[in-house]
């Protein structure tokens, strides 16, 4: 019997659009917009100015805080602006704008490090930090921070998240099929950096070719096991993945390290492998450009900072009248108001829906059916939390564990009354967190 978690849903996955399409290298953009905030934690401080010439892999944003990650130039060329620009979050974020010279000249400081066998744990963590590697499944948590838990948190298990449960997206799927050895190399580096001797790679069973490729890649490594998982959303959530594979349950308000586990995305592992093999920091990523709204859906290896409009053009442009462009997938992605928003470290997909697919619905009164309760993978009471949010009852929302919500969207998806449960709970979370900062 395949491993899974309690709760969750089975939305249409729509992965057939791109799951068999090999990764293509995207065209070199003429201009990139590189935000100083592409991660959880403190934004970077620009270390370049207008008029400077930069090269591929050169650091352009310095991380001054522990919970942060530096950013690097993804093209060679001239810095033409250092100013706030549109960001996937909907805000305007300080960004470095580089006009490409078309030369793609690599920065002199980009050199391969010593072989993994010769690196110490601290050297591995420092390489990861300096390369600006963050969680590439979308969360964007700085990886070196995750690999440096407090001394009282004993880690005994590493889990690689290869579930990719979000509908439409196939970036990790193609990565595991085409470059399984990179996922394994990055995982081995993580294991050495943390001193952990047991690791699992969790993959949903709707990706049989990825499961086979990864099983082949881990032959000879008795301490790494590939675990097929039931296909169910949100199987790729950290807490759900940990529970499915190990049976452990992360406590309310807790983190994976509280149960001895570190979870890293398959893309993050491959990015670490690239640093080990070439010395190149994180300057590009696989992004699935998909949906009925594009003529030719593809998996593209895109440079960080590429405007999403350029990626859509490389997929033949819009098919029909576009109704919505989403950074990410339909469940946890964010709708965009501009095609100038750039690809970032966590941009696993760009979903384009046709206008006919986007329909406004009017919410109705709750009918107390409890479908949202059954679907919630965190075992919350979404309808209560939504009522608290509507009435501004933030203390009550906190007592009912609103901060544990992972905003997966399961509750809103199954609600027959079309109540925007996820959005209301998100509002409650934001208000609670804001009050704690005062």
From TrEMBL:
Q: Where in the cell is it found?
A: Cell membrane
Kindly state one GO CC term assigned in the UniProt record.
Answer: plasma membrane
Any GO BP? electron transport chain
Give the keywords, sorted. Answer: 4Fe-4S, Cell membrane, Electron transport, Iron, Iron-sulfur, Membrane, Metal-binding, Repeat, Translocase, Transport
**Location of the 4Fe-4S ferredoxin-type domain:** 357-387, 396-425
SUPFAM superfamilies tied to this protein: alpha-helical ferredoxin, Nqo1 FMN-binding domain-like
How does this protein sit in the membrane? Peripheral membrane protein
Which residues are [4Fe-4S] cluster 2-binding?
Answer: 376, 405, 408, 411
Cofactor requirements of the protein: [4Fe-4S] cluster
Could you describe the subunit structure of this protein?
Answer: The complex is composed of six subunits: RnfA, RnfB, RnfC, RnfD, RnfE and RnfG.
In its UniProt entry, what is this protein called?
Ion-translocating oxidoreductase complex subunit C
Give the organism the record lists: Fervidicola ferrireducens
């Amino acid at each position: 019997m395949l491993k899974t978690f309690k709760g969750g849903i089975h939305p249409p996955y729509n992965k057939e659009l791109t799951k068999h399409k090999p990764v293509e290298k995207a065209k070199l953009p003429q201009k990139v917009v590189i935000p100083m905030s592409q991660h959880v934690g403190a934004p970077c401080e620009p270390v370049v100015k207008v008029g400077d010439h930069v090269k591929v892999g050169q650091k352009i944003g310095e991380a001054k805080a522990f919970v942060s990650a530096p950013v690097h130039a993804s093209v060679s060329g001239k810095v033409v602006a250092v100013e706030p620009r549109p960001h996937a979050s909907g805000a305007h974020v300080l960004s470095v704008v580089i006009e490409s010279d078309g030369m793609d000249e690599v920065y002199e400081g980009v050199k391969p490090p010593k072989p993994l066998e010769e690196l110490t744990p601290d050297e591995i963590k420092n390489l990861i930090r300096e390369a600006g590697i963050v969680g590439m499944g979308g969360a964007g948590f700085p990886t070196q921070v995750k690999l440096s838990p407090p001394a009282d948190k004993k880690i005994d298990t590493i889990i690689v998240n290869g579930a990719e449960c979000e509908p439409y997206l196939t970036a990790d799927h193609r990565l595991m099929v085409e470059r399984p050895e990179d996922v394994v190399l990055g995982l081995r580096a993580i294991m050495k950096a943390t001193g952990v001797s047991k690791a699992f790679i969790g993959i949903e069973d709707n990706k049989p070719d990825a499961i086979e490729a990864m099983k082949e890649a881990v032959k000879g490594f008795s301490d790494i096991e590939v675990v097929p998982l039931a296909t169910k959303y949100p199987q790729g959530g950290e807490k759900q993945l940990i529970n499915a594979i190990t049976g452990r349950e992360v406590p309310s308000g807790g983190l994976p390290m509280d149960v001895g586990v570190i979870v890293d995305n398959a893309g993050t592992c491959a990015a670490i492998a690239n640093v080990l093999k070439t010395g190149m920091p994180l300057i590009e990523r696989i992004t699935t450009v998909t949906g009925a709204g594009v003529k030719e859906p593809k998996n593209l290896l895109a440079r960080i900072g590429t405007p999403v409009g350029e990626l859509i053009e490389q997929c033949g442009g819009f098919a029909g009248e576009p109704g919505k462009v989403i950074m990410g997938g339909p469940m946890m992605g964010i709708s965009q108001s501009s095609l100038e928003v750039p690809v970032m470290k966590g941009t696993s997909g760009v979903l384009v829906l046709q206008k006919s697919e986007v329909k406004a619905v009017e919410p109705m009164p709750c009918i107390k059916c409890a479908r949202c309760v059954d679907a919630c993978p965190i075992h919350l009471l979404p309808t209560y939390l939504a009522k608290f949010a509507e009435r501004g009852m933030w203390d009550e929302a906190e007592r009912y564990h609103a901060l544990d919500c992972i905003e997966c969207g399961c509750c809103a998806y199954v609600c027959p009354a079309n109540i925007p449960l996820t959005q209301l709970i998100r509002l409650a979370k934001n208000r609670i967190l804001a009050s704690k900062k005062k």
